[in-house]
Every structure is written in structure tokens, then in C-alpha cells.
Specification:
The complex is a heterodimer of chains A (about 90) and B (about 240). Chain A is mainly α. Chain A contains three helices and no strands. In chain B, about 35% of the residues are buried. Classes of the chains: A mainly alpha (about 90), B mainly alpha (about 240). At the A-B interface, helix 1, helix 2 and helix 3 of A face helix 1, helix 3 and helix 6 of B.
């Protein structure tokens, strides 16, 4: 399953030109693979709530760092608007 | 004050500050998870600055991506995912007290990990030859310093060249730090395999194997994101 997703992500990137959807699709597949590795290989499925709390804290603080930083840069008009996600600002 | 130890675990396995083996295992795995959460932010800072730079310089980053070989990167992703599967089977072998299988799977995991590093080293060498290492000679293939590289637009477009160089700064720092994590993982597994070969380490208490497995899977997850970010976003 994981190998299948790897093949999918590589083939999509090479053969299809998705334009502004390229990044969401590639990261979405990476997220799905991470979920599989975490739930099964790392036994998160059978882990206690304390472990889940630590994982959630790690992800949460990363999201805060990423979103606040990008919210700053992307609203300063330094970034070419055609590269921003669809519907972002104007 | 009760000095009566309720534990009936074999002597020497449980440190004196733990009630029993299960509590000890939970504590060590929680410790690893906490460390991994801090690692998320360590690599997260790199990914964040990558995101900022990529949105500022989309053309240079796409040009940089196109210099990389997605086939080699894809093979390496497959190799690493397979090593993770083998690692998970190694933890399972330890939990079910199958000593022989534990040796096999730890060995296989290390073999796949080493294969990854060999392919990575080959790629780095190739990029060095193509003159893609950031610095003074950037854009000049090795051994041809005075000639412009064939089919290159850099003479006409120094700005694109600067952006592309920025991509390769990220490329070498991110893949380099990831490879460093792989080396640490190989070292940990090497020690554990040696101990497991010499004694009943691992099958007696699978805690340590599980904890190093968590680390190994995390390094795999980092690569799962590195691969699309560096190799696949080409337009």
C-alpha cells in the first residue's frame, strides 16, 4: 500500500501537470503515507492517550509555526499571486 | 513505607524507580515520542523556511527540482519504506520472543538503510559533478570552470541562477541532516543487533527495540515529506 502510494505520487508529478494543485496533491499523498506509518508501524492505533497528546502537540506547534510564518509572507505582496493557493486573498 | 516490591519480573530488567516492566516500557516509549515531537519542530523549521523561499522564488525552485532524478528519489523512498516494514517486523519478532527472526529483521533494516545512503551518496556525487553545490562554482560542471554548462540559461539569467542556488542550499541541508539521522539510526540498530546476537537482548525485554523502531519510522516519515518537496514539485 505504501509502495503503491509512492508510485502514485511520483507518476502524478512526472506525467500530469497539475499547476497550483501540484503541491496539495503531493503533500496529501505524503500525509496519507505518514498516517499509515504512524498508525501501524509505530503502533499509534494501540497507543495510550498520553502518546496521542504528544503527537498532537508536535503537529499543532508545527502548524502554528508554518501558518503564522506564511500568513506574514503571503500578505506582504512579495509573493507572485498566481502561486498562492486558489482563492487566497483577492 | 512499603519496601515490598509487587513486581515479579526477572531480576535486573526493571530499574528501581519503576513499578514493573510495563510501566518502564511506557515511560521509555513516551520519552522517545517527546523527543520525536521536538524533532518535528527541528525539521519543521526547515520545511517552513523552504515554504517561504519556494513561494518567493517559484521558478528557481522548479528549475532546481528538475535537476534531480525523481526515479532515484522514488527508489530511495521505496527502500526506506521497506526498511520501516522490516523494522516493524523486528519489533514484532522481539515481542513474540523469536530471537532468530529478530536478528534477521534488524539486519535487513540496516541493509535497507545502508542501501538508501549509498544511493543518496551517488546522487550527491552526481550533483557535485554537475556543479550544483552552492558556492562560487555554482552552475559550472566540475572540471569545466570557464565554460558555461550546455543548454544553460544562467549566463542570460543570473537572477534565476541565484534562486536555483537557494533551492540547492535547502536540498543539501535537508538531505544532509536526514542522512545524519539515518547514520544515527544505523548506529543504534548496530549496537542492538550486536547485543541481540550475544545475549537474549530484545526478546527478554522488547522495550529498547520498540523505542529505536519509533525513531527509525520517524526518520522514514521525514523522508516521505522530503521526497515530494524536493523531487516532485517541478512546475
Amino acid at each position: 500500500m505504501l509502495l503503491l502510494l509512492t508510485a502514485t505520487t511520483a507518476l502524478i508529478a512526472i506525467n500530469l501537470h497539475l499547476g497550483r494543485w501540484e503541491i496539495p496533491v503531493a503533500l496529501g499523498i505524503a500525509g496519507a503515507k505518514t498516517l499509515l506509518v504512524g498508525l501501524f508501524f509505530m503502533h499509534l492505533l494501540y497507543s495510550n492517550r498520553l502518546t496521542w497528546l504528544v503527537v498532537a502537540a508536535g503537529v499543532l506547534f508545527f502548524v502554528i509555526m508554518l501558518s503564522l510564518t506564511l500568513a506574514d509572507y503571503w500578505t506582504r505582496h512579495w509573493v507572485p499571486s498566481e502561486r498562492l493557493p486558489a482563492g487566497w486573498l483577492f | 513505607l512499603s519496601l515490598d516490591t509487587a513486581s515479579h519480573e526477572p531480576h535486573g530488567l526493571v530499574a528501581h524507580h519503576f513499578e514493573n516492566l510495563e510501566q518502564q516500557r511506557d515511560a521509555s516509549s513516551l520519552g522517545m515520542w517527546l523527543f520525536l515531537a521536538s524533532e518535528v519542530l527541528f525539521f519543521g523549521a526547515l520545511f517552513t523556511s523552504y515554504a517561504v523561499m519556494r513561494s518567493l522564488f517559484p521558478r528557481g525552485f522548479a528549475a532546481g527540482s528538475n535537476e534531480l532524478d525523481p526515479l532515484l528519489g522514488g527508489i530511495n523512498t521505496a527502500v526506506l519504506l521497506t526498511s520501516s516494514l522490516s523494522m516493524a517486523l523486528g519489533v514484532w519478532a522481539a515481542q513474540t520472543s523469536q530471537r532468530r527472526l529478530l536478528h534477521v529483521f534488524l539486519g535487513l533494516t540496516m541493509l535497507f538503510g545502508a542501501t538508501f545512503l549509498v544511493i543518496k551518496a551517488y546522487e550527491w556525487h552526481h550533483e557535485y559533478e554537475k556543479g550544483l553545490v552552492p558556492g562560487e562554482g555554482f552552475g559550472h560542471p566540475h572540471g569545466a570552470v570557464s565554460q558555461p554548462s550546455p543548454g544553460e540559461e544562467h549566463a542570460a539569467n543570473p537572477e534565476l541562477m541565484r534562486q536555483k542556488q537557494m533551492f540547492f542550499v535547502f536540498y543539501f541541508i535537508i538531505t544532509g541532516l536526514h542522512a545524519l539521522h539515518m547514520l544515527v539510526g544505523l548506529g543504534v540498530l548496530g549496537v542492538q543487533l550486536t547485543l541481540a546476537l550475544r545475549s537474549d537482548f530484545g526478546v527478554r525485554d522488547w522495550g529498547p527495540i520498540e523505542v529505536s523502531g519509533l525513531y527509525w519510522h520517524f526518520v522514514d516519515i521525514v523522508w516521505i515529506f522530503v521526497f515530494p518537496l524536493l523531487y516532485l514539485l517541478r512546475t
